[in-house]
Amino acid sequence: MENAKKILSIRDETYNRIYDIAAYRKGSISIGVSPGRSPMIVSKIYPQFQREFPGFNIQVFDISNAQTKEMLIQGTLDLGFLLLSDKEISARLPISHLAITQEDMYLVTSKNHPMAARYHNGSQGRMIDLRLFQNETFALPTKGAKIRLFVDEIFASYGISPNVCYQVYNIQSIITVVSESRLCTIIPAGFLPDNENLIYFRLKPNRFMEFSICWNSNHRMTTAEKFFVELCQKVYL
Length: 237
Known about the structure:
This protein is an alpha/beta fold and 237 residues long. 39% of the residues lie in helices and 30% in strands. The chain has 8 helices and 10 strands. It has helices spanning 2-22, 38-52, 65-74, 86-90, 114-119, 146-158, 171-179, 223-236, and strands at 26-33, 55-62, 79-84, 95-110, 126-128, 137-140, 163-167, 184-188, 198-203, 208-216. The strands form 2 sheets. Strands 1, 2, 3, 4, 5, 8, 9 and 10 form an 8-stranded mixed sheet that branches. Strands 6-7 form a two-stranded parallel ribbon. Strand 1, helix 2 (38-52) and strand 2 (55-62) form a beta-alpha-beta unit. The protein starts with a helix and ends with a helix.
């Protein structure tokens, strides 16, 4: 199976090279992105890409951050969107990346949460010390999820063992639960919804994750893929 995947990958890349050289503007791009991010591909990037490369087929895989990284390393994805920590950025992985944006981490509560009412000053994004909420109850992504790993590191840096009573992989589900309850959560800025029932606090000191577009370092990028990457930069500048 592994050899078959490699053969198919070589075939796809060969076709893309032929199409690229011949300027037929036909081919395909496989992209890995977490389910919570995939609407971004469709609504912000794909329409502009399709106008320039109408003959290209875009295949989006709604998969986890870990799956995207593994498939990029194996060479079974052309491009992938990853949240990267400082450790991963400095690690010697066979993955090239281009930072799209740095996303601050936010503590999110319902506007009816007693602690939120105490520290909210009327404007979103006020900086706050997480230790003020160390006795509160949290809703977080399930163990093993990329954001959860980073959030656990944040809690550990404060010496906090959070009381987690709700866990689910989907960030949107967490946001819905938090907006209708007295639970708190910590999520990257890219997931913050326009919801008047929620209050956002930036963490002090500031913590962030890097959201990047990535590809295998040994992968020869086609003109279409390079254009897609450039669009990602423009959309998030």
